[in-house]
Specification:
The chain is an alpha/beta fold and about 450 residues long. It is built from 14 helices and 19 strands. Helix 6 packs parallel to helix 8.
Length: about 450
């Protein structure tokens, strides 16, 4: 399996035509690391800790240095990732709302093209009850105590409700179980989506996880020593993450055969660890530290390099469809295909020029920060309570807690053009949100969300 190595896809296609057989569609492995800060990886911050597997993946990837999340918490950001539209168009903007059936679905579109679509998640806001199971043949969103045997997953999946989970072990076991079947028949291309809270739960690593969470949510006045310890706990989760990613990539190399495989690694949002600036945790704040995310894409004709063109997670779905050979209808997605940027060269340069002037956005409908504490809306809002937008190199956010303008590259050069940024943000705040079916929250899910820092219910 190539996983970023071997002949370019175009050369493989020509060779296959010469042999009288079509080029098989590529596989896709999409890994979402919840709450992974961009500066946690050496690809984006040379001072970050060494992570052998992630560093090696980054070295053979297109590294998007200015990738932005469309929301600052898990549910709306992942719904945008898998639909290619901003939160107001998919509607999953509050814990008592679901993904609109009218929104596009990346796994459903791939399934229509013959792909085997499977997902392994750590549950919570990735529960199937929000609509994430749409288009997936198998969706494992529950915690499984033992993953070695991995019993056959039914359609809609959920093999077990007991015990502690190792997300990467579940996905690895599935790949190894699948391999003999694929070798004995005409194999279908695979789209595997893996989502983990391995980094998100860093605050549980200390002596008092509840105290740590109170620090992050502004519900307690915490000391400099406590904040320093939280930062160390965050960094401590990265080694375990790196090991898990390494196991999954190794399993993919040995089980997916010689066909092309694209690997996409990203985060749904970052994490605020800067109490001095009032940017802590996530959800409710659209500060640059929280919406800036890592994005790595490897495989096929991808040219390993830094790509400085600003992009959004809503671009991932149309990019995967393009690489899979599927048509991408204009206007169907808010995002665009990044495929022209991946190979570099003249085509990549022209594509970068065409995309450089885009206005990218982020939305918040359910949470906000005021006086250093996070608050939550009781019901789904018909309009965003906060918005963020990228314009002319400036990231601007505006909401109940005030406004903030930051250079996208982190520099402190010129003064922000606030009048034009305010004019651009005003219509975004008035954008109506599509109505969706209400979400019914089970006691089990409520307990899981509470453990993730989302206390109470709708």
């Amino acid at each position: 399996m190539a996983l970023g190595r071997g002949l370019p896809a175009v050369a493989l296609a020509i060779a296959a035509l010469g042999c009288g057989r079509p080029t098989p569609p590529p596989n896709f492995l999409v890994i979402s690391v919840d709450t992974l800060r961009r500066d946690a990886l050496r690809a984006f911050d040379p001072g970050a800790p060494a992570l052998p597997h992630l560093d090696e993946l980054a070295a053979r990837s297109a590294r998007f240095t200015h990738a932005l999340a469309p929301a600052a918490w898990t549910l709306p950001s992942h719904a945008s990732l898998l639909s290619g539209v901003y939160p107001h168009r998919h509607g999953a903007v509050h814990r008592d709302a679901t993904i609109s059936r009218a929104a596009p679905s990346l796994p459903a579109a791939l399934a229509q093209r013959g792909y085997e679509t499977v997902a392994f998640t750590d549950g919570g806001f990735l529960d199937t009850s929000y609509g994430f199971g749409r288009g997936f043949e198998r969706f494992d969103d529950r915690l499984a105590k033992s993953v070695a045997p991995l019993p056959g997953l039914p359609r809609g999946g959920r093999p077990s409700t007991a015990g502690a989970s190792d997300l990467f072990a579940r996905a690895e076991a599935y790949l190894r179980q699948r391999a003999p079947l694929q070798r004995s028949a005409t194999g279908r291309p695979l789209f595997l989506f893996a989502h983990t809270y391995a980094v998100h739960d860093y605050y549980r690593g200390g002596v008092d996880g509840e105290r740590n969470l109170d620090c992050l949510l502004g519900q307690a006045q915490c000391t400099d020593a406590e904040w320093k310890a939280l930062g160390a706990q965050y960094r401590g989760t990265l080694q375990s993450l790196d090991s898990g990613v390494g196991r999954l990539l190794a399993a993919a190399r040995t089980t997916l055969g010689d066909g092309e495989t694209y690997v996409v690694l990203l985060a749904d949002h970052g994490e605020g660890l800067d109490p001095g600036r009032g940017v802590t945790h996530h959800g409710g704040t659209l500060a640059r530290d929280v919406v800036a995310v890592p994005l790595l894409i490897s495989g096929g004709d991808v040219s390993p390099r830094d790509v400085t063109t600003p992009v959004s997670l809503v671009d991932v779905a149309p990019t995967v469809l393009t690489l899979a050979g599927a048509p991408v209808s204009r206007g169907r997605f808010d995002g665009v295909s990044l495929a022209p940027l991946l190979a570099g060269g003249l085509r990549g340069s022209l594509a970068a020029m065409g995309l450089s002037g885009r206005t990218l956005r982020a939305e918040e409908h359910a949470y906000w920060w005021r006086d250093g504490r996070r608050s939550a809306a009781r019901h789904v809002a018909s309009h965003p309570v906060s918005v963020g937008l990228l314009q002319h190199g400036w990231w601007y956010s505006r909401g109940p807690g005030g406004e903030l303008a930051e250079r996208l590259d982190g520099s402190r050069s010129s003064q922000a053009p606030l009048p034009s940024l305010r004019r651009a943000a005003a219509p975004l705040l008035r954008t109506p949100t599509v109505a969706t079916a209400p979400h019914e929250e089970s006691a089990e899910l409520r307990a899981k969300l509470h453990s993730l820092g989302y206390a109470g219910g709708p």
